[in-house]
Amino acid sequence: MGVFVSSDGTDAAGHEQVVFCQDRHTGLKAIIGIYSTALGPALGGTRFYPYGSEEAAVTDVLNLSRGMAYKNALAGLDLGGGKAVIWGDPALDKTEALLRAYGRFVESLHGRYYTACDVGTYVPDMDIIARETRYVTGRSVQHGGAGDSSVLTAWGVFQGMRAAAEHTWGSPTLAGRRVGIAGLGKVGKYLAGHLIEDGASVVATDVSPAALDWARTTYPQIDLVPDTRTMITSDIDVYAPCALGGALDDDTVPVLHAKIVTGGANNQLAHPGIEKLLEERGILYTPDYVVNAGGVIQVADEIEGFNFDRAKLRATRIFDTTSQILRLADDEGVPPVVAADRLAERRMAEVGRLRSIYLG
């Protein structure tokens, strides 16, 4: 295990700590990124993914951990931002021994980082990791955990979408609107249910045949299309990216018909400057790390003893946070992502400063 930290406690990207973890016997190759602990221990999920290179894995963990710091700050949590990636194919490489080896590395950080589920990892995986470390959330109900964190992730995205609808059309509902969902996985399927219940019509796509079969069986009224480009160039009011990051890029934004983008995926902007392109086209983008914070709110609640009603109430407040950010963006003449960054940075600076007060 190697820790690459500069003399002032940060790396070039502003991270406090980046840890490379390897266990040759189990085949574990993992990276844990801790962006900030100004508000408290870093919390963020573990992504298990077959990256094409180590550079791609490092880039992902740095971006994701930074995003978690801002997400946790805006969610009102006393938690910093972290993330981990396991480099491999979860369908082929995931074993009990590998997950437990990973848990040992998490434990070695002595509570600076709490892990949870992400792409490629699930609640049963967290139960296995927890056999080696105390610093795990997103555990099963049988072990006192919150269970599937995508439940409140989707609920929070729906609340953010309602706030965007009110800001755009004057009413906090998606009734009568056509919403396109890219990805009917953990979050997308719950989001589809909320939208249909609210009176929206849903068009969706997914690369997984199983996900499409689920939609046909559960919600036959969903209009399924072959790919994302077909969907975003169609007549939709709202676009909800709910798969992997980078959904908004130089190719997709110019052809996007939606007036609002609100989705569950992390890091939706492919590169800096996309937020300006969206603004120029009159498309309202609600920052992903604001609206998809319901999942981290859910798993964070485990740390003090999980209560679903309390966690759902906190996730419902994503509506208020999103509305505040959209008003601030209008008042200051900046894109919503800039307004959100300012709010998050202000909280990290103001609350983090209190740590300098000596307690004896």
UniProtKB/TrEMBL annotation:
Keywords: NAD, Nucleotide-binding, Oxidoreductase. The keyword ATP-binding does not apply. The active site is at 83 (proton donor/acceptor). One of its GO terms (biological process) is amino acid metabolic process. The keyword Ribonucleoprotein does not apply. Pfam families: ELFV_dehydrog, ELFV_dehydrog_N. Residues 147-356 form the Glutamate/phenylalanine/leucine/valine/L-tryptophan dehydrogenase C-terminal domain. InterPro entries: Aminoacid_DH-like_N_sf, Glu/Leu/Phe/Val/Trp_DH, Glu/Leu/Phe/Val/Trp_DH_C, Glu/Leu/Phe/Val/Trp_DH_dimer, Glu/Leu/Phe/Val_DH_AS, Glu/Phe/Leu/Val/Trp_DH_bac/arc, NAD(P)-bd_dom_sf. GO terms for molecular function: nucleotide binding; oxidoreductase activity, acting on the CH-NH2 group of donors, NAD or NADP as acceptor. NAD(+) binds at residues 183-188. Belongs to the Glu/Leu/Phe/Val dehydrogenases family. This is Valine dehydrogenase (NAD+). It comes from Pseudosporangium ferrugineum.
